[in-house]
Each structure stands twice: as C-alpha cells, then as structure tokens.
Write a structure and sequence with these properties.
Length: 162
C-alpha cells in the first residue's frame, strides 16, 4: 500500500509518498499557491498524485502547540484534511508535526544547503519527516504484534508438551 504524507502550510503543501512496502518516505514536490484559501488547484494536484501512485491513505501534519492545544493553523489543517477525505474518499490521519520544520531545517543545514535556498525544500523535507514518523510507528506496532504472537505460540507449545 502507498501512503501520502502532506505538510500543509499557508501557501505551500509539501508532499511525500512511501515505497510500496511502507519502509521509507520520499519527498515528491511542493505544491504552491498564491493565497491561503485558494485550494482548488492544490486539491486537484493531490488527487492526481493519489491516482498516479495508487495511494490508499493520507497522513497530514497536525501543527499542535507545544502545550498540546489546537490553534488556528491546526484548525485549518483539520479542515484541509476533511476536504481531502470528501474529494478522495481516503482516510486522512492527522499526525503530530511539532518540530518537523525545525528538523527539516536542521537536515538541510547539515546537508550544506545554503540558507537562502532552504525555503525551497523545507516543506518537502517536513512532509518526509511527517510520513516517516507515521511509518516508523506502523513498523513498531507490527513488530510488537509479531512478538506477542510468538509469545502466545511459545506458551501454547509449552502447554502442549505438558
């Protein structure tokens, strides 16, 4: 299954997608718009990407405040997620994106991207961080489930031996 990662901002949306095995997230593009509320072309481009990659789920960055409250940007993200759900019929998972822009800028600095060029890439890198965080959580859950199943099988084997 392919999962789409989105970093929704006032004038841009960073876009990433995972590999078919759900191991890694790759940055795709940054969708730009002139005004915050002009979303028709942005949503149309997201639909194109969903079709092109066979996406079955969307992970959207959820910009909570550090104290875990929801502000104006988070509310706009919720609305944007609802628009995507209505237009595509796909589930949209809201994923805590605190510190993703800071992390994205750090990655770009460490990659020696010039300061004036960083804003060209930061939203796409943030989308990768958002999606990779979600993929890592899925991987951890699968691993825990496998360990539980193995323990149950071991227990059943011991009981059968008695």
């Amino acid at each position: 299954m392919r999962i789409l990662g989105l970093d929704y901002g006032t004038k841009t949306v960073g876009v990433s997608v995972c590999d078919p095995l759900e191991y890694t997230a790759q940055g795709l593009e940054i969708i730009r718009r002139k005004e915050d509320n002009k979303l028709r072309q942005t949503l149309a481009r997201i639909e194109e990407i969903i079709q092109e990659y066979g996406v079955e789920k969307v992970v959207l960055g959820f910009p909570k405040h550090l104290n875990n409250t929801i502000g104006e940007r988070a509310e706009k993200s919720i609305e944007f997620g609802q628009m995507i759900e209505r237009r595509t019929g796909l589930p949209v998972i809201m994923w805590d994106e605190r510190y993703t822009t800071v992390s994205a800028n750090q990655i770009l600095m460490e990659s020696k991207v010039r300061r004036e060029d960083r804003k060209e890439y930061v939203d796409k890198v943030a989308a990768v961080i958002i999606l990779q965080g979600y993929l890592d959580m899925l991987s951890m859950k699968k691993k825990q489930l496998k360990e539980q199943e193995d323990q149950q099988e071991d227990q059943q084997s011991k009981e059968e031996d008695l």
